[in-house]
Amino acid sequence: MNTRAIYLFAGVGILYVLTGVLLSWNVSLNILILGLLSAIMALGVNMQWGYAGLFSTGIVGSIALGGLAVVFVSGNPVPEAFAAGGWQAISGLAVAVAGIAAAVAAWTYMPAGRARNLAVAVILIGGFFLYRGIFDPAVERIEAFDPATHGNVGGFGLNSIWAWPVGGVFAAVAAWAIGKIALGLREDYLAIATLGIAEIVITAIKSEDWMSRGVKNLVGLPRPWPVPYEVDMQADPGFLAFCANWGLNPTTTSTLAVKGIYIVMFAIVLSLLIWLLQRALNSPWGRMMRAIRDNEVSAAAMGKDVKRQHLIIFILGSAVVGMSGAMYVSMLGQLVPGEYTPLRFTFLIWIMVIVGGSGNNWGSVLGGLLVGWLWLIVDNAGPLIMGAVTAGMADGALKSHLVDVAPQLRLLTLGVALLLVLRFSPRGLLPEK
Amino acid sequence: MDLLNALVAFLNFVVIPAASYGAQLAVGALGVTLIFGILRFSNFAWGDTMAFGTMAVILLTWLFQSLGISIAPLPTALLALPFAILITSALLLGTDRVVYRFYRKQKAKPIILVIVSAGVMFVMNGLVRIIIGTQEQNFADGGRFLISAGDFKAWTGLAEGLAIKGTTAVTLVTALLTMAALFWFLQKTRTGKSMRAFSDNEDLALLSGINPDRVVQVTWVIAAALAVIAGTLYGLDKSFRPFIYFSLLLPIFAAAVVGGLGSPMGAVAGGFVVAFSEIIVTYAWKKVITYVVPQSWAPDSLMQLLSTDYKFAVSFSILIIVLLFMPNGLFNKGK
Description:
heterodimer, A: mainly alpha, ABC transporter involved in vitamin B12 uptake, BtuC, 2 domains, 18 helices, globular, B: mainly alpha, two-stranded antiparallel sheet, 73% helix, 1% strand
């Protein structure tokens, strides 16, 4: 941290304080929570791009997988649905995985030729029909159970803080599979392939009702320990006495307190990550990663296994992003698949990393807090500002159109910001040393 | 057994929709592949360029409609195409001048250009949403059907109908003309030849006195035309929603990669490969199979390999298979 960083962070801090004073503290803290989450996502992306130069456009997929972990770990158990088809669905999925593994094994170990192609095709096609045969009836039975409120297999009903690491693991497993396929291709092929994977993950979450009720949204996921519910706080005599003692409004105080607890929790996770990452960056491993990023050929000539290191960093980065996705859903208390759009959760995170400073962990944090603030403030202040701008205009179609599209201005602004940074300060606000 | 009805159902639900979707993808993939061949990067802003061009067409269509100009039974949008191409060319040339040229002169790595194009994507996306909003727009006017299912049944006495929508015919004819014009341009004209030379070997092309700036400008103008045409055909056939155009990026990239990035012939073939696979895999075959097999064998289930929600999984699988096993695509043996 140098003086430039301190000034910039102070500047971002002032933005949040101003939001609190001028708009409301509730909004300001809300944005701060999401800003911290964005900072964690940006750290994960920075690991892939800043340390290793991997351009992945599948960030939204990792985030969604993390969110899915919350559904499985903390969703209410639905024993009837699970009894109806839980094990069968799991064995169906196991057949699918085994089929793919068998096909890969056949491809690897059989001598090249027609026999191999035929074997792989037979395994894949036969496996597909076997999988559908086992899986489909199970899913039908699961979804048939009380579709108005359930229709999903249910989860373990554990505290949702456990879902955070599990979310990381989900994203890591997916990243391993993608990395095995797509790393080692040209760098823009990786970008296209990850875009596709993310699209498929999102489609699955939207349409596989047995997992997460799809677009019907799974609500009522529990909050992570130790965050209390506002209603419980307001019913707690000790809390009421405390508020009365200090002359505070219990409703406002409880909402602010809950947000404060989230902020502390997320800040702890963020600090731990930063600490770990800074240590890693300054270790021999960090030097090796930078060497690979800056010149793959010479790093390979020095005996470094470039592909393997790329795979490792790709998995680690995705795991961090997946964990933040789980944190996000555990905080929201619901999984809303429609929310996961590439623009919001892939390219916006990219803007955070690049504007903040690729390769610099503090830069990613700064980018997350700053760009996250810019993105969210428009939701709250955009209509107000556009209202003020168009106040002098006559009421009519144009005016109402302008007020309607005000939130879209942020796409334009952020795009221009990204282009300006790339052009005039390609190393970002806080450049790598 | 009723092979004739099976054939008609197959044509109506698989071949015709896939041909029209394939033609739209092919025109879009041509643009991606040209930009890749000449400017050497994958343009992530392509979907939003198509959206921008289509938006221009829609606005002009409304203008013409309000002036009472129409070319019925053809959709008014066709009349708007040339003007929209001009507007979009101006936008792309402007973008190149302000954004991409700097990185080209610097000889920046392709991945930097990809990121830059993501920035351009945001800007274009924002522009489109600010100008026309996020709602769905239907701008197909003109004749609804060339042949309607009812008429077909009446003529032939078959149980299955074969419908050819006006927009399908417009799509196929326009796409065919566009491709013919593009291939003629690339093969026969001096500028087209210099573009191919530039794409094959930049240094040699420069040595032979080809003006790189001119090649790049021509490429952007052609790309603009392709984006507007592909976007408009898609919008006429389905409807216009800005975010749909972003997600077209995946099938279009898949089409371009299948044929080999940089190969125009490949892009056309790739467009149809992707479209046909997508529709064959996601079509519910029950009807066709019921006609073909003896009555007692008729299937109970829909006989659908994948639900239509997963159509992107199809383009993605094709993309991955090609990347893994034929990284240069089907039509790019030399490189």
